[in-house]
Amino acid sequence: MTGGRSPWPALSRYTGEQLREVAFPLGGIGTGSIALGGRAELRDFEIFNRPDKGLTPPFSFFALRAEAEGAPPVTRVLEGVIQPPYSGSFGVTTAAAGLPRFREVELEAAYPFARFTLRDPGVPLAVHLEAFNPLIPLDAERSGLPLAVLRFVLVNAGDRPVSAAVAGSLMNCIGVSREGGDTTSSIAPRGLGALPGGNVNEPRSARAADGSRLHGLLMRSQRVEPRTPQDGTIALVALAPEATWRRSWGSTHWNRHLLTFWDDFSDDGRLDDPEQEGPSPAGQGQIGSVATSVTVPPGGSASCTFLICWHFPHRTAAGCGWNTLDPQGGYVGNYYAARYQDAWDVAVQVAPQLAELEAESARFAGAIAAATLPQPVKEAALNNVSTLRSQTCFRTADGNFFAFEGCGDTLGCCFGSCTHVWNYEQTTPFLFPELALNMRALELEHGTDADGLNFFRLRLPLGSEPWRHAAADGQMGVVMKCYREWQLSGDEAFLRSHWPKIAALVRYCWLPGGWDADRDGVMEGVQHNTYDIELFGPNPLCTVWYLGALRAAEEMARSVGDAAFAESCRALFERGSAWVDEHLFNGEYYIQQVRAPASLDEARPELRAGMGETDPADPDFQVGDGCLIDQLVGQYMAHVLGLGHLLRPANVRAALAAIYRHNFRPALYDHWNTMRTYALADESALLICSWPRGGRPRVPFPYFSEVMTGFEYQAAAHMIYEGLVDEGLAVIAAIRARFDGRRRNPWNEQECGHHYARAMAAWAALLALAGLRYSAVTGELALAPRWQPERFRTVWSFPSGWGEAHQERRADTQTVRWEAHAGALEVRSLRLELPEGARPASVSARLGEQAVDASIRQEGQAVTLDFGAAVRIEPGRPLDVRLELIAE
């Protein structure tokens, strides 16, 4: 520890007003989460198989008792002071608001780590609350643990020892219903919502496998119906040789329960458990507390570690907001819960692993923090990983991974692992590729019929009547994502087993009444898409996705030996690409030709999702001559996949420049928006659409005037790929300025709901700035920094391993190091970019201590090193390359 603190990375720091909107999530993939607010207070208990923004059980807090030698003891709630407003009808609405708290609080964070520092002149100790949940790339199992780790590091800067105790208190609110009930009362434990009662807190003690001791309370309910979403347990656990506890605070009459606890703990730092305590009465929860003590030496530190664990096995589709036809609600269960008997078992199993889990998580967060990428890019890439560990995502009991688009306050928003939204994000396939592969398998095996129709939303349970609607962009994105997963993993079995369905997705476009029935390489007709409407006629949004799918399908077809299909895809791609450049590029950007069919009956019925149907003679909800933020999203995806340009490079670059020129607003004071408001006033943003040459439809598509971060990240990353680095970084900086802790929560980017999946496109900006690309199929690896290439450092993560890459340039040399922190990377060739006007005179390469032969070839400013046989980069065996350069 440094100054008593753990040597955690710190990427961002928040103080004062920047703490106002903070809600730092603590939870694993598919487990739900608990958050810490900007005062270090517990909030948002989203552990009951659905979103629960604002569900904050009253009287749930940690407290410190500190007694310096020869001085009277002081007791404080381990939170910052409550901030205004204070004007509730019965005073301050926060429970236990009258208890003293710390006057100073600040937060240092590098997700998944949050360190709150609490100070108060009246307290002889400073306190670092260190909170995390393990996040380990490529390991969804150990990144999917249902717990929050809370370590209180007590620092004594004085010259006298301090006797200290920390007590954690939680209301057992299992069974709570937020429909009805007072949620603001600070008087009684029932001030949370409707509670059935019957809540019981059971003392537990155990010795873990490593010999460490655990003491705490296992919380359950005797009145919750079995096999319902709230049927489960919570554990409040102290990792300490000794601890004391209270199963209940006793009578709530005139707030006697709070007085009882405060007096008990303040007296000697120990808790006196009532001799007999029954279940809570109807309408009330049961507050339980656990305390442990330490002595903090002068000039030294000591720590107290607590775990909050949970175990709620019984997820239902209906209970979390997922569309189901099952009248019983669609029971699907929870994958994480099958690994443990109850919440106490979570603590017993995980406690011996904590040091290793913490170290591996810190290695990843530290690598991000140490990268030479711009601060907003690092924040965007890392903070949005938290979406995978929110209630947006879950894993059913069989291990399958599903996701909403985002979360409402109490239900998921827009069910189905929606293809046209999840098309944009790049976080999952690079950090947790097994989950991305699982999504592809579900889309193909359960979401695609024999004709190649992909249902862009999946119902649960699997096997029920499908949601028979197609999205043009969503379906083409599935093809490109299958190519991505194959390239990143090198999994030939995946490709060959799923190839018939992948090919069918493309062939579906050619069916009568389909998107490309005339097989000219251009999408026409009725095209449902991510804007929740149908576009009529050729447009860049859907057609460029189609061009990307044709290119991806061509490559996959060649790999499986389907030469005829590959040639068909190639011919359509070339024809369609040329047509789009000739007919949709207006000299600045790409536009839509609105061509409605004479009758909607001409289109296949599944192409109309019922959200944008209008009179074909004068269709509403079109783009027309607009400059659309994601007009080239298919090209963005092609760059991530290494498929090259789908359209003329000069036109593509011009279109990205036009998007920035016409859609970026340094401030929004003069901007009007009649839909949802995600940015306003002095904030900078990239608008969804503008009509710089006029011609705006009378009724454009609904979201045209909005601002949404997932679209912005996509456009920004694409700008960077096209060499518009300053413009792309300006867009990302504008987003992060809006999510600064004062205006919005830095770990929750909203679109259609909280923790919106599309915002995980932020990872693509890291890929674009680093020029990172890898194919496990060919063994080709690329690094071409577009940002400070003279001294560059970044994180890389592919399915087989993760680590860091470094590049340095000097007057006559360029050196590159690839090191693995976990797993391995097999490389047959390495592509690098040289400085302008330089060429290689010689090259040397080493794998660990072993010299490696490499031939070299140059194409423009790019050089490729061919190693012949694959070299295997592993932990402790980095690949080092040195190029001696001379002027051309």
Give a short synopsis of this structure.
The protein is of the alpha+beta class. 23% of the residues lie in helices and 26% in strands.
How does the SSE layout of this entry go?
Layout: E1 12-15, E2 23-26, E3 33-37, E4 42-46, E5 61-68, E6 74-80, E7 101-102, E8 104-110, E9 113-119, E10 126-132, E11 147-155, E12 162-172, E13 199-207, E14 213-221, E15 233-239, E16 244-246, H1 256-268, E17 286-296, E18 301-311, H2 317-320, H3 343-350, H4 354-370, H5 375-383, E19 393-395, E20 401-403, E21 406-407, E22 412-413, H6 419-422, H7 427-431, H8 433-445, H9 472-489, H10 492-507, E23 526-528, E24 534-536, H11 540-560, H12 563-583, E25 627-628, H13 633-641, H14 649-663, E26 664-665, E27 685-686, E28 689-690, H15 709-721, H16 725-738, H17 763-770, E29 773-775, E30 780-783, E31 791-798, E32 801-809, E33 813-823, E34 825-833, E35 838-847, E36 850-852, E37 855-859, E38 862-873, E39 879-887
Parallel strand pairs: 6-7, 30-34
Antiparallel strand pairs: 1-8, 2-3, 3-4, 5-6, 5-12, 8-9, 9-10, 10-11, 11-18, 12-17, 13-14, 14-15, 15-18, 16-17, 19-20, 21-22, 23-24, 25-28, 26-27, 29-30, 31-32, 32-33, 33-39, 34-38, 35-36, 35-39, 37-38
Helix pairs in contact: 5-16, 5-17, 8-9, 9-10, 9-11, 9-13, 10-11, 11-12, 11-13, 13-15, 15-16, 15-17
Features of the shown structure:
Maltose phosphorylase, domain 3, Beta-galactosidase, Chain A, domain 5, nine-stranded antiparallel sheet, 17 helices, 3 domains, Glycosyltransferase, 888 residues, alpha+beta
